[in-house]
Amino acid sequence: MIIAVDFDGTIVTHEYPKIGKEIPFAIATLKKIQQEGRHQLILWTVRQGKELEEALEFCKKRGLEFYAVNSNFPEEQEEHACARKLAADLFIDDRNLGGLPDWGVIYQMISSGKAWEPYSGDMSEDASQKSFFRKLFQSNK
């Protein structure tokens, strides 16, 4: 699986353009995923130039290197890579709907192959009648 990973807010806390504090277990989890040999990690970040180099160095000093950076393949030129969508199977990003889960949860989702589960709550007629969104989008009769 190809996994795209954000940097700020995902691997480190938000302090852009500085490097924030490492989020607990982020790098250890990514290294474990990488060592298992089934997945390719791509760093997918808005950082460019000096700030990008600092982020890469931060990760490298901790033993984490990425298959590619802001591109699908290492040999892609940066000016072309950022202009198009990345072909990844999974994106790990703090701006996810629902936010960033704990890194232990992220690891379990990836290792089990169950990265997303559909909603399994009670959608009986009584429950759906109480739904805020059902009321909000209900047509006026």
UniProtKB/TrEMBL annotation:
InterPro entries: HAD-like_sf, HAD_sf, Phage_SP01_Orf1. It comes from the Bacteria. This is Hydrolase. It comes from Candidatus Gallipaludibacter merdavium. The lineage of its organism: Bacteria, Pseudomonadati, Bacteroidota, Bacteroidia, Bacteroidales.
